[in-house]
Amino acid sequence: MNHFELRDGELYCEDVPLAVIAQAVGTPVYVYSTATFERHYTVLREALEAEGVRDPLIAFAVKANSNLAVLRTLAKLGAGADTVSEGEIRRALAAGVPPERIVFSGVGKTRAEIAFALEAGVCEINVESEPEMLAIAQVAQSLGKRATIAFRVNPDVAAGGHAKIATGKSENKFGVSFAEAERLYAQASNNAWLKPVGVACHIGSQITDLAPMAEAFEKMAGLVRRLKGEGLHVERLDLGGGLGVPYFNQPEPPSPADYAKVVAQATRGLDVTLAFEPGRVIAANAGVLLAQVVHVHERPEGRRFLVLDAAMNDLLRPAMYDAYHDIRAVRPREGEAKPYDVVGPVCETGDTFTRDRALPAFESGDLVAFMSAGAYGASMASEYNSRPLVPEVMVKGGDYAIVRPRPTYDEMLARETPAPWL
Ligand SMILES: Cc1ncc(COP(=O)(O)O)c(C=O)c1O
């Protein structure tokens, strides 16, 4: 459930008409609903607790939406942060996430980033390879600090809504195999600069089938049992693998309650703290991208293009993952739906949000909302084609605040310095 709904013929975010935000801030603009973020986090936590999962660490995947207002909203509810760069750790800290609730993952952490994470005191660094484990030990020694680590295991399970967001097959770059995990865990336990506390996995994003999750979680539970059986200390199991959300024309994802049942079933009797790294399931339906129709261009041979002022640089998912977002009129007009190709102004054919989609009639100047755009929307946006970075607005009840302003063209140009010989 989310808090974007039609009231008296126009689309609202909580108690604010989207048209009011478009008028005040301009378009394109991302609009987030505080109540929806809060609800999604709470529903997930309560579903886990209802299945007997005690005090789970729900570390929001900062990559999904890294706006400080979003992170702060979740931090106030007790969320941790799953991070993959120094920049994301800094964001989580700035938003008030306590370091002991920050997990640091990623296959290519630099020594500088590892040092930063150790100085910050993050709760665990997820080790993705043997060379990385050795690098962490060296950095820890140079700082005189023992590094708390977990091993990210690649469970070799296929899942995820698109090949580009599947992370848990052995051909993917992430994590170590089960055999490596057992060997490295034992090795790390004998290293004075490393403190292994657990194991982690992440099998993919936009997962709409619980079977691969159950398979991966069972395999991970088996690993925990084997490690404990060898007398090794294991206190945390991090079960990544992002629940899907209902995008346009996509299979209906499982409910958090059913997901929690799978978790509980796989981990019964393990005696470890469970951690999770959800991004999309918390953020996607908490945000929309608001855009305006620039032209309706009807070609004589029949194609009808809805040309928007939002483009692939603002919402990359359709171009990158063939993703389909529901597209709604902010003030739907009467009349029959017609097929449209919805496109942006960027000079790439890939700047196409959808083709031949039946939509209500639109006219130039109308407002359009891309639904389910709160995850991997603004956080993946760029200034390609020298288009100003898309702003973000947070709504709470009847209030709203610009939480990332649109840069001016002067600000964009001032970031660059000509080479001295030019
Ligand atoms: C390590 C890790 N954790 C968490 C996530 C978040 O996944 P999702 O947004 O599907 O919940 C991802 C996404 O790819 C990831 O790679």
Can you walk through the features of this model?
- This protein has 422 residues and is α/β, with parallel strands linked by helices.
- It has two domains: 4-32 and 284-414, Lyase, Ornithine Decarboxylase, Chain A, domain 1, CATH 2.40.37.10; 34-280, Alanine racemase (TIM Barrel).
- Helices cover 30% and strands 24% of the residues.
- Helix 5 (111-120) crosses helix 6 (130-143).
- The N and C termini lie far apart (55 Å).
- The structure holds pyridoxal-5'-phosphate.
- The site of pyridoxal-5'-phosphate has 17 residues, from helix 10.
Helix content percent band: 25-40%
Q: Return the structural class.
A: alpha/beta
- Give the integer mean of the pLDDT values: 94
Give a count of the beta strands, DSSP E runs of length 2 or more.
20
For the largest beta-sheet, the strand count, sense and barrel status come to: 9 strands, mixed
Which value, in Å, is the CA radius of gyration?
23 Å
CATH names the topology of the largest domain as: TIM Barrel
Q: In CATH's first tier, which class of the largest domain applies?
A: Alpha Beta
CATH 2nd-level architecture of the largest domain: Alpha-Beta Barrel
What is the CA–CA distance across the termini?
A: 55 Å
Estimate the strand proportion.
15-25%
Count of spatially separate domains: 2
Ligand set: pyridoxal-5'-phosphate
CATH superfamily descriptor of the largest domain: Alanine racemase
Number of helices: 12
Return residue spans where pLDDT drops below 50 for at least 5 consecutive residues.
none
Principal-axes shape call: globular
